[in-house]
Design a protein that fits this description.
Blueprint (H helix, E strand, L loop, with lengths): L15 H18 L3 H10 L10 H13 L6 E4 L6 H10 L8 E5 L5 H9 E2 L11 E2 L1 H5 L3 E5 L6 H13 L1 E2 L8 E2 L3 E6 L3 H6 L5 H7 L2 E4 L10 H16 L8 H9 L5 H15 L14 H7 L5 H15 L4 H8 L3 H10 L4
Parallel strand pairs: 1-8, 1-9, 2-5, 5-8
Antiparallel strand pairs: 3-4, 6-7
Length: 352
């Protein structure tokens, strides 16, 4: 089986610990291979500076900085709300750099318990803890001269921050349970949606690590502050979704663009991409329809200071009742409706 291309083999009776270890090595091998071959070249093309979408002035400046950062190996701190594209910017920096053929390894610092996060990044030796049935290389070892992207680094503990600081200062780390340190040449790009200055003041984030991470800082604006980019992004996501689904690219009519521009996008670019992808999946013709977007029109109206017609009608009804002291006959006359119509309105708005 190994000669035919199998990654590894297991013998009966299966031991759960051995199975876990083999699966981990498979994932490690796959992650390492991402930095090489056709897949890496495709990613490099996808994240080329020419492919970055946006004409909003701040985004244009950010893309210029991305190009400058690609020529260096300094640490970068990317800040912005959830869904603003922090991971996209990190990948653009990596895939436009001289290390584009090296692995890009993303680790979400909130996805694992602190103890497992340390093992994930630094590795461990056999017997370091319960379940450590074999030595395991961590992400820093697997990255080579590539990039480690630490997402949501602002949520890590001070204990973990101390270990990360050593990596940035000394370019070395200790696998869990190991006596000797290992060297790393990986570049670190970190991201957070937290207010790190505030966390530093409260003693929740190390000040020295903060300055080590933010040799260069990039702040991504929320999508609601770059409205002019929404049509461009929508068109980009339509093309991307159609290509991935193997469907003809549908056109985006003006009423769909209008609906997209009215939405507040609390989930930012990620929400927009999911919205467009869903619409392309559900589209049966060659034109997108507004109802496929499934946007919350009421929430958008409220966010912009508008009330819906139903909300205005209910408020008008309450004011009429207050003005007439609750006399429904006089309220109906004041509103210019029949008493039966008034009673239906009261029932509709729970005022009966």
């Amino acid at each position: 089986a190994m000669r035919e291309g199998a990654f590894d083999f297991l013998v009966n009776p299966l031991e759960l610990g051995e199975l876990r270890e083999v699966l981990r090595r498979v994932l490690e091998d796959r992650q390492t291979r991402e930095g090489h071959g056709p897949a890496a070249r495709a990613k490099a093309e996808a994240y080329h500076l020419d492919q970055l979408v946006g004409r909003e002035p701040r985004m244009i400046e950010i893309y210029k900085v991305v190009g400058q950062l690609a020529a260096s190996r300094v640490s970068v701190l990317i800040r912005g709300e959830t869904g603003t594209g922090k991971g996209m910017v990190a990948r653009a920096i990596h895939y436009n750099s001289a290390a584009a053929d090296q692995p890009f390894i993303a680790v979400n610092c909130t996805a694992l318990p602190e103890t497992l996060l340390e093992s994930e990044l630094f590795g461990h030796v056999k017997g370091a803890f319960t379940g450590a049935v074999a030595d395991r290389r961590g992400r820093f070892a697997l990255a080579g001269r590539g990039t480690i992207f630490l997402d949501e680094v602002g949520d890590t503990s001070p204990e973990f921050q101390s270990k990360l600081l050593r990596v940035l200062e000394d370019h070395e780390f200790h696998p869990v349970g190991a006596e000797r340190a290992e060297r790393t040449e990986a570049r670190v790009i970190a991201a957070t949606h937290r207010d790190l200055e505030q966390r530093v003041e409260r003693g929740e984030f190390r000040e020295d690590l903060y300055y080590r991470l933010r040799v260069v800082e990039i702040r991504l604006p929320p999508l609601r502050e770059r409205v002019q980019d929404i049509p461009l992004l929508a068109g980009h996501f339509v093309r991307k979704a159609a290509q991935e689904l193997g469907k003809p690219e549908p056109t985006v009519p003006d009423d769909v663009v209008h609906a997209l521009l009215q939405h507040q996008w609390p989930g930012n670019v990620r929400e927009l991409e999911n919205c467009i992808t869903r619409a392309v999946v559900l589209a049966t013709g060659n034109v997108l329809r507004p109802e496929l977007l499934e946007l919350d029109v009421r929430a958008d109206a409220a966010a912009q200071g508008f009330a819906t017609l139903e909300e205005m009608e209910a408020e008008h009804l309450r004011r009429a009742l207050a003005a007439t002291g609750g006399n429904k006959t006089r309220a109906a006359e004041l509103l210019g409706v029949s008493k039966p119509r008034l009673y239906r309105m009261l029932q509709k708005y729970g005022m009966a």
